[in-house]
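Translate structure to sequence.
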């Protein structure tokens, strides 16, 4: 009996030791972790009971601010977004229910209330809580122009400063209004793809609007402008990369004429089905040197050129423009953001026909509008792709400069010599090639490349593109326009061209 009592006593002592260790673990070891956990009610109360810094456009328009919450609210302040859906995909949201996203998340440490840095003796004697103002590179005017240009249709526009990497406008449709997401409750919900969404958040494409991080909420997910590269082949705009690859890695091909075809007969290229020719979209024959093929956008010629350059060199050049890697933009990232070229998931059997099709922006090539804006910008900037960014400067509540963005190169895409040659060829696309129908004013010196990608089962629709920069002699702006879900016989020049014409004129007008 006494033996059993001893074992019971030992067990009780062990339990007390374990309890003591767990209490120390909770109250000492993990105290900081739990005290600062994002779902801790006290942490939430502290976050939403303090004001938050402003987010401003480059031209001084308030994009996000904190206002006193309505009577009866749990918290003291509510975040509001005066421009609604115009900047929703850039500012993101600061929400009780759905957390932080966009600039609100990326620059959270500056926007939230924090102790003022000690600069004077008086600061040592009294702690002051301050917020900072984040000013963006994006222009309210250009962003509005982009929204109006896409009114009533899906698509995306990116306006890029090729010399600094500053994003001047980045808008995609559908967008969303972050305002309703900041309320403590949402009065009306709808089900999209089995997920509960606030009906006021405007989403026509379920996957491109929200993901569900937990059983209660969701976060804004995808902007077609920079976060959804997986479903958009860039079409003939990618021929800029293919031409660069030849100049940089296979110079012997630059002045070598490619054979003239209306259609490359089935079975000509490795892996090509005997019954599936590769044809020019125009239905006419073409070939020749790069200088002869780029202005009219010869599909068959560039397809053969890509196979002669080779998969390895084509991949190196695509990577040099930013494909197959995460763009270093100062916004939260998406798993669908990386633009692809010849990834193993597509290029599984290394078939020559896949390389040919990918070299003209189809098959194993997919890109975001931001990526293609950087392709145009790389040529405009003498072969250097600058790091894309949306933050211009951060100032404290007294107007003192806290941080300013310093432009920095990201990638060397081509040599200056190659960039200069392709710059000239892109101006010829406008003066005598596929973009001539757009009618750009000669005074703007626009250099461009059109793109029409066949998509859908049986190639029943198109994604229409144009990339451009201007003035070609001293580029100030690079632009990408992408409009998906168009009719089969629509083209980049006729669909994206008028939008590009408007955006180039507006961007240069503000310089």
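Result:
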């Amino acid at each position: 009996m006494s033996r059993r009592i001893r074992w019971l006593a030992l067990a009780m002592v062990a339990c007390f030791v374990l309890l003591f260790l767990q209490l120390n673990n909770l109250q000492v070891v993990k105290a900081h972790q739990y005290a600062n956990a994002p779902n801790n009610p006290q942490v939430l109360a502290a976050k939403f009971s303090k004001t938050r810094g402003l987010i401003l456009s480059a031209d001084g328009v308030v994009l996000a601010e904190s206002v006193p919450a309505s009577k009866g609210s749990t918290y003291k302040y509510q975040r509001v977004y005066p421009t609604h859906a115009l900047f929703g995909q850039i500012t993101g949201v600061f929400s009780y229910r759905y957390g932080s996203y966009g600039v609100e998340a990326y620059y959270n440490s500056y926007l939230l209330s924090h102790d003022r840095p000690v600069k004077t003796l008086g600061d040592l004697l009294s702690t002051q809580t301050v917020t900072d103002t984040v000013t963006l590179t994006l222009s309210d005017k250009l962003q509005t122009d982009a929204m109006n240009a896409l009114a009533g249709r899906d698509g995306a526009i990116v306006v890029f400063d090729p010399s600094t990497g500053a994003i001047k406008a980045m808008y995609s449709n559908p967008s969303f209004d972050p305002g309703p997401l900041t309320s403590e409750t949402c009065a009306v919900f709808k089900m999209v793809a089995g997920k509960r969404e606030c009906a006021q958040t405007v989403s026509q494409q379920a996957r491109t609007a929200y993901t569900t991080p937990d059983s209660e909420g969701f976060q804004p997910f995808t902007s077609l402008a920079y976060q959804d590269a997986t479903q958009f082949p860039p079409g003939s705009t990618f021929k800029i990369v293919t031409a660069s690859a030849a100049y940089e890695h296979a110079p012997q091909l630059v002045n070598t004429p490619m054979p003239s075809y209306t259609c490359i007969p089935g079975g000509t290229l490795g892996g090509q089905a005997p019954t599936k020719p590769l044809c020019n979209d125009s239905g006419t024959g073409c070939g020749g040197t790069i200088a002869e093929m780029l202005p009219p956008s010869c599909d068959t010629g560039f397809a053969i050129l890509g196979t002669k350059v080779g998969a390895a060199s084509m991949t190196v050049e695509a990577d040099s423009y930013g494909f197959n890697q995460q763009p270093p933009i100062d916004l939260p990232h998406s798993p669908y953001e990386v633009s692809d070229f010849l990834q193993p998931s597509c290029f599984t059997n290394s078939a020559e026909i896949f390389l040919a099709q990918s070299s003209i922006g189809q098959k194993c090539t997919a890109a975001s509008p931001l990526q293609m804006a950087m392709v145009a910008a790389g040529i405009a900037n003498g072969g250097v792709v600058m790091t894309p960014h949306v933050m211009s400067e951060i100032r404290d509540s007294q107007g003192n400069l806290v941080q300013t963005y310093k432009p920095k190169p990201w990638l060397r895409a081509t040599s200056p010599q190659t960039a200069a040659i392709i710059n000239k060829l892109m101006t010829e696309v406008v003066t005598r090639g596929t973009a001539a129908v757009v009618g750009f004013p000669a005074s703007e010196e626009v250099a461009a490349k059109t793109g029409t990608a066949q998509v859908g089962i049986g190639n029943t629709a198109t994604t229409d593109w144009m990339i451009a920069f201007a003035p070609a002699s001293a580029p100030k702006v690079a632009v990408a326009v992408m409009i998906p879900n168009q009719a089969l016989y629509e083209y980049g020049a006729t669909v994206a061209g008028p939008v590009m014409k408007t955006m180039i004129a507006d961007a240069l007008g503000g310089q």
